[in-house]
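Record minuted for completeness.

…
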Amino acid sequence: MFIKQNNNSKGFIQIPILIAIIIGVLIVGTGGYFGIKQYQNYQTQKTEKEKLAQEEEIEQKGKEKQEMEKLKEEIENLKNQKPQIIKEIPSKNSENQKNQQSSNIPSQPSQSVDISSVIDKWKPSVAYIKCDFFNKDETYAFSEAGSGTLFGFSDGVGIQTNKHVISKQLPLTGGLATPDYCTVKFLGNSKLYYVYHHTTSGVFNMQAAGDESDGARLIIRESDNFIANLLLQQGFYCKRKPSLGESIVILGYPSIGSQTDITATEGIISSYEYSVNAGNYYVTSAKVEHGNSGGAAILVKDNCYLGIPTFAQIGEIESLARILDEPGLLK
C-alpha cells in the first residue's frame, strides 16, 4: 500500500509540469508569431516610405530640371532682346521726403536742360523792332533796328529793349533823336504792330531809363489775341544771381542773321559789372551783334529771363557782351 501511494504521487507531479511546458510553448510561439508579423509590417512600411521618398525625390528633380530649362529659355530670350531704358518710378514716400528736403530750397529745373527746348520756349516772345526817324520837315532820315522781348507791365503790354534801339545820338548836336514810330513783328505773325512816340493825349509809348543804363520799353496799345496767347505762355524773370561759368543763350535778330527766324548764340557768365548810374550788368562770352541788342538773355539752367543783351566791350583778343540786369523802370 505504501509503495502504490508513492507511485501515484510521482505521476501526479508530471502532469502539471507538462501542462506548463505546453502553455509556455504556446505563449512563446504566439509571441514569436506576433513579433514576426509586426516586424514584417515594419519592413513593409519602411519599404513603402523609401519608395515614396524615392518617388518624391524623382518628382522634385523633375521639377528642378523643368525650372532650369525654363530659366535657360528666359536667359536666352533676354539675350536676344534689345536694350531697354528702365525708369525708376519713385514711391510716394520718397517723393514726400524729397519735397520735405527741398521745401526750403528754391525750386530749379534739372541741370541737364535741353537748349533747343529753352529756345523754343522763348523765341515766340522775342520780336524784331524797326524804328524810323524823320527830319523836322517830316522827311525820312534813317532807321534803327534791334530786338526786344514781350512782357506785361503795370501800365500795359510792351516790348523790353535797349535805349539805343529807340533813340539815336546826333553827331553834330550830341542830343538824342527819337523815332516817330517803331514797328514790332513776332515770329508766326505777319502783322506789324505800330508803336508811335506818344498817343494823341500825350502819353509816351517809348520809355527809356532815366539813368545811364541802356534799358527802354515800347508800349503796344493795339494788343490782340495773338499777344494775349504769347503772354499766357510767357516765361519768368530769374530770381537768383547766376554763378560765374553758368551757361546762357542770347536770342535776337542780328544784322548778319536771319530776320525771318530767331538767331541764338551761346556763352557763359564771365564776370559782373556794377554801376550806380548805368545799372548792373553781367559780362558774357556770348556774341551780341548789331541788331541782336535788346533781345533776350536766358539763363539755361533755370530757363528764365536774365536780362537785356546790349553792346559789346572790345578787348585785346575778343569782344565780351554785356547783359543789363533789368533796371527798376522795366520791372
